Amino acid sequence: MKRQDYISWDEYFMGIALLSARRSKDPGTQVGACIISADKRILTMGYNGMPIGCSDDEFPWEREGSPLDTKYLYVCHAEMNAILNSGTADLRGSVVYTTLFPCAECTKALIQKGISEVCYLSDKYASEDLFVAARRMMDAAGVRYRRYEPSGREILIQV
What we know:
Layout: H1 9-21, E1 32-36, E2 42-47, H2 78-85, E3 95-100, H3 104-112, E4 117-122, H4 129-141, E5 144-147
């Protein structure tokens, strides 16, 4: 008889997104994304961080101050990195699992690549314009979005 306590697909893919987020050097917010095909294959992953060639030690991680002295003008978001990491892969009809609801800029890229669904863990910026706009675009483009429903199960990764 097969075991019954295996994790669900949602737990698996959100777990990959959460593990990817652990690669982020951002001291305030770590975000991970995992894009999967319609047949449940991992196509690509990403996390928020500086662009290749821009040192994590030389660019700012601050959240406040003049724009050039904060992280916001420099950091690539997890969803954008996942898309860029996909190379020439066809992402049409795929699902992105992300630990934070995508901003409007990432949403534009997700729509352009044909991603059909967003499964997100946190929506802590829902009332901010960048995220209201993201929802409007997803609604207009027919991209489904849903909050990940945690099972309450603890999954421990030990190495």
